[in-house]
Specification:
Length: 627
């Protein structure tokens, strides 16, 4: 319910908490009813604000410096289900829809209320809002904070400001004695219709409240996937499983007690070298009957009691793919834009441009321009007018050489820093959806979970495009994955990436040290986000020994986390310890599935200086022993 009084502002109340917004536009009260506890640190922080790139109203422009400026809310009134918010100096107001639900309160920017003469008759779209702060709440100092989920909590209470669509920019700023939770709507992403939800609950009831938000706003089911019993199961990973060798992979996976098998995209599609053909997604020749053979192979995996997953690079377009040669697709991302200041003939090796090239890359593998589908490498550039690129090689990457007129726009190709064998997708184009369709056709043959590799490979703003690119693929997958992992994450990703990133390969001689340095350090922080981390993609080398894997998987178990074994059939055959290593994994996977160790035992396992082994005693019982 909501009450409107002239002097005290507006009060919103549901079953869990009370939010009061003062008549001065500041949050005055955030009261957790079950614990009878005030959650705000101060009552002088404006809850809403508007940011403009500069001042536009003529009198304000003359009276104040012309720069990026933020205007705080200074009054509110409540009419029906709308908050009408006014701001210091500004002559227009914001209309915010407030929805009070049992476990959360949602806010949506509906529109701006602009008086007819607010901008003095300027010929422009109004209002010129760069960003709108939809919520800003300074929460009292609590011992735990999850930066991914944007939640502050202790053993009793949790306060969570969460996005209700992929467009909301959710963040927090730590201050003295508090953490300020924020939600922004940003021009260029979404202003009107952008929304967020505020949750105040008992800590143990937070996920139930988030599930309500996910259901009401039709979000990916992050809570449901975290409740799946396979969420902490370790993974058998392969890059070369085909109908011809799948029986061997199933054999080894069962020896290790693995319930999940993650297949790299190269198991299904052609790829000559790392990433070079990514984007084509042509099925391998081994699938003689096309997708029917892929479906049959995945059914065989499932019949063995193993759930198959698909690992792909959704934002990468291989340089040797049809999207890059003989003509570069116009939807590849350009990281620095340039305009030709002079015509460029087919034989010219100097390119004259209007813009200063100071920020063009000079790494030898990334010095590539693209104009009209032609890729052109360069050796250097001038930093004084006339600006120009020199030592150019035309038709780079076997692209067609064509003339280009003055005024043609192009720029530096956004080549991936990971091997320089692929290019990133322009997320402001249709190419990501086109790639998503290709990935979905493969996934829908019977895969049930996924790994979003290369997720960091987007254009800015990354806090929006990283999860948006994942979601553009995710929403095409049927059925929805039981859970996902990914190489990068941002706020909205929480609903999709039920498991955090898997750390890359550590050689045997430093394996134990790296387990403590990286995944064991991240695991407690991921627990603050009410989820877990994958303790790594552990390569199986010819010198891999049982104690190495036992150390890693026991530490992962201590934090209720899984790990991933990168299986190589040829290394299994050459390593004399293969059976022993797989038996170690089998025992710990049994322990994971049946949760046979106590909390005290898990705490002991976390000690980086101690090693443990899980044995089967003379009575056939599993028993933990310190080495």
């Amino acid at each position: 319910m909501a009450e409107n009084t002239i002097f005290s502002g507006v009060v919103f109340e549901n079953d869990n908490f009370i939010l009061e917004i003062g008549s001065d536009g500041c949050a005055k009260r955030l009261f957790h009813k079950a614990e009878k506890r005030e959650m705000l640190e101060n009552t002088h922080t404006p809850m809403f604000s508007i940011t403009q790139d500069r001042l536009f109203n003529n009198e304000l422009k003359l009276a104040h410096p012309n720069k990026r400026s933020t205007f705080s809310s200074n009054s509110v009134e409540f009419i029906n289900d709308r908050l009408i918010v006014s701001f210091e100096l500004l002559q227009y107001r914001a209309e915010i829809k407030v929805s009070v639900k049992e476990r959360y309160i949602a806010f949506e920017l509906v529109d701006f209320i602009v008086p007819e003469h607010a901008f003095g008759g300027l010929r422009m779209d109004v209002p010129p809002v760069s960003s709108f702060r939809l919520a800003q709440l300074p929460i009292i100092a609590l011992p735990n904070f999850g930066e991914w989920l944007n939640v502050a909590f202790d053993e009793k209470t949790a306060v969570n400001l969460i996005g209700t669509d992929k467009s909301s920019i959710i963040d927090a700023q730590k201050g003295v004695g508090c953490v300020t939770l924020t939600a922004d709507c940003v021009r260029g992403i979404k202003l009107k219709g952008c929304s967020c939800a505020l949750i105040v609950s008992k800590k143990d009831e937070l996920l139930n409240a988030i599930e309500d938000v996910e259901n009401d706003f039709d979000l990916p089911k992050g809570v449901k996937s975290r409740n799946d019993k396979r969420i902490n199961a370790s993974v058998y990973w392969t890059s070369d499983a085909t109908p011809e060798n799948i029986d061997e992979h199933i054999k080894y996976a069962k020896m290790g007690g693995f319930r999940l098998m993650l297949m790299y995209y190269t198991c299904a599609v052609k790829e000559s070298t790392r990433y070079y053909h990514c984007g084509n997604y042509d099925l391998r020749d081994e699938y003689k009957n096309g997708y029917d053979d892929l479906k049959a192979m995945l059914k065989k995996v499932k019949d063995a009691g193993i759930t198959p997953g698909l690992h792909f690079l959704h934002t990468h377009i291989g340089l040797r793919s049809r999207y890059c040669t003989p003509k570069a697709d116009h939807r590849l991302n350009i990281k620095e834009k340039f305009t030709l200041s002079a015509p460029l003939g087919k034989d010219d090796t100097v390119i004259y441009v209007e813009e200063d090239p100071s920020f063009a890359p000079m790494h030898k593998d990334c010095r590539v321009l693209v104009f009209d589908g032609e890729m052109i490498s360069y050796e250097n550039y001038s930093l004084e007018p006339p600006f120009r690129f020199m030592g150019c090689k035309r038709g780079w990457n076997d692209t067609d050489i064509v003339p280009h007129p003055a005024g043609r726009c192009g720029g530096v190709l956004d080549i991936s820093e990971y091997g320089a064998s692929s290019v990133y997708v322009d997320q402001n184009s249709t190419l990501q959806d086109e790639i998503a369709d290709k990935i979905a056709r493969i996934y829908n043959c019977g895969f049930e979970f996924v790994y979003f590799d290369g997720s960091e490979g987007t254009n800015a703003p990354f806090e929006y495009h990283v999860p948006s690119a994942q979601y553009r693929v995710y929403k095409k997958l049927s059925p929805a994955p039981i859970f996902c992992e990914g190489a990068a994450k941002s706020h909205f990703s929480w609903h999709m990436l039920s498991g955090g990133n898997a750390f890359d390969i550590f050689p045997t001689n430093i394996f134990k040290e790296m387990i403590i340095k990286y995944p064991a350090e991240e695991a407690p922080r991921m627990a603050n986000d009410f989820t877990r981390v994958n303790f790594g993609w552990w390569a199986f080398f010819e010198d891999t020994t049982p104690d190495v894997y036992e150390y890693g998987t026991s530490k992962a178990f201590a934090y209720n986390c899984p790990a991933t074994m990168q299986a190589r059939l040829e290394r299994f055959e050459k390593n004399p310890n293969t059976k022993a290593v797989l038996e170690v994994m089998r025992r710990w996977e049994y322990a994971r599935q049946n949760d046979i160790l106590t909390d005290d035992q898990k705490e002991a396992l976390k000690d980086p200086n101690k090693e443990f082994t899980l044995i089967i005693n003379e009575n056939g019982e599993y028993e933990l022993k310190e080495c």
